[in-house]
Amino acid sequence: MSHQHWCDYGGHYWICQGSAVRLFQQEATECKCLNCGVSMEEGDHSNCSVELLSCPEHRAEHMRAMGYEPDYVGPAPSESDEPSPMFTDSEGNRTCGFCLWCNRDFYSIDEWREHTDNGMAHCEVFQLLKDQTTMPPVLRAMFEQAGFLEEEGENDNQKK
What we know:
- This protein is α+β, with helices and mostly antiparallel strands.
- The protein folds into two domains: about 1-75, no CATH class; about 85-150, no CATH class.
- The protein has five helices and six strands.
- It is extended.
């Protein structure tokens, strides 16, 4: 049974027959559902996420663009045993995203949709700040921490 991948380098869908060669690997490995964790050959995955994976035609070009020879086999540049903190909450539970306005973690796409549908009606922080010219508090804190925002006084003095 075949399934689709999205070639993130070439920008198109491609059909896979159950196993594929992933970046930094030499041999094809079985495709497993990103949502269910089972083989793509088992069950219906039409409502599950599609794996981003360079197609066989674009794989070598993708590796070169990242600074590797197409036959390089080894760990990916950012591979580690630790789960990415971008996809876990403060207690280490896996998430699929968060709201930049209220910093709420989402544990399913349905939860995210409920929060963001109807003009972000369920986000109290967005509703409170939507008529102001400001950025989401979480994003503002991240920019301040990175030193990308000017001090309030500096910006005011430049305008005068």
